[in-house]
Amino acid sequence: MEIRPEFLALVLACALVTALPRVLPLVALSRLELPPWLADWLRYVPIAVLAALLAIGLPAAGAAGLPAIMAAFAVAAASRSLFGTVIAGVALYWLLN
Amino acid sequence: MRHESFAAGVRAAGPVVLGYLGIGIAAGVVERSAGLSYAEVLLISTVLYAGSAQFVVTSMLTLASPASAIVLTVFFLNLRHLLLSAALAPALRGIAACKSALLGLQLTDETFVVASGQRRLSPAWMAGLNLAAWSAWAVANLAGAALSGAARDTRTLGFALPAMFAGLLVLQVRIQPRLRAALGVALFSGAAGAGIELAAPGPGAVIGATVLGATLGLALERWKSGPNSSR
Questions:
Q1: Which of A78, B85, B153, B200 has CB 3.0 to 4.6 Å from A25, enough for a Cys bridge?
Q2: CB under 8 Å to B30, separation ≥6 — which residues?
Q3: pTM
Q4: Which residues contact A34 (CB under 8 A, 6 or more apart)?
Q5: What are the boundaries of each domain within chain B?
Q6: By the CB < 8 Å criterion, does B171 face chain A?
Q7: Contact: B165, A50; criterion CB under 8 Å
Q8: Regions of chain B with pLDDT less than 70
Q9: Is A45 found in the same domain as A27?
Q10: Do A45 and A7 sit in the same domain of this protein?
Q11: How high is the ipTM of this complex?
């Protein structure tokens, strides 16, 4: 029930290098008028980052991962419910395993 | 569509909270099994507050990696937040710098996608979203730590993460004005991410695929509409 000093130092260092990219662009760029091409480019960032995270992480889920994700896509497209999508995806993944 | 209040932000966090309960419990189980105390689990989940980075720190600790290597890996892994943070900036225009800094501090992949569905962000709404997600994450990590003796199967719970990414991806594609360009970007970024990961595994894959994918999106948009129309 205690915190080792070297662990505290490690977490603080990791938190610092994590905070900088989280904070700096938000603070700096919300002062500026972005050129239209940059604003348009940034609009595609969420889709690109999500697709990349999904494609990179999915193989670790094994053979049941792909059908469960396909079902999650279908539920998301039909219901627009993120809640339902997560439940359906995890439930099917559990059933397939 | 204006959701301004703190309470509305908390409500908007619902799906993220659910996803975090799943992944957070998995993270807590892994952290406790790696020898972290409850206080250390609470520390890492509230101060670092980055799911994938916590998994990396924990696994590198069990491998006895040097601290410098751990910090460097976390830095590269979380560098993708540069892009997310920049993408939210236009919606937070005119907000005091210290407020945007506080809001940015709790930026995650998941809260980002929920927030980026909003054209204008009110600081109160964003704070509600952030604090709900952050509290759920800490609670889930602690619950996972408490369950670590009993729980064997963290894989099933961990699947909440890809399932949430899939749901968020569909929601993001839907709000884009150009559906075909958005779908093209999604397919291309996924393929690029998988390809880069295969060729050179590491945190660079997400960043590389994101830069390539967003550039493709911009190119498709300009090619379809001509360089003069910006919307």
A1: B85
A2: B55, B58, B59, B144, B148, B154
A3: 0.77
A4: A42, B89, B90
A5: 6-158, 176-231
A6: yes
A7: yes
A8: 1-3, 151-153, 225-231
A9: no
A10: no
A11: 0.84
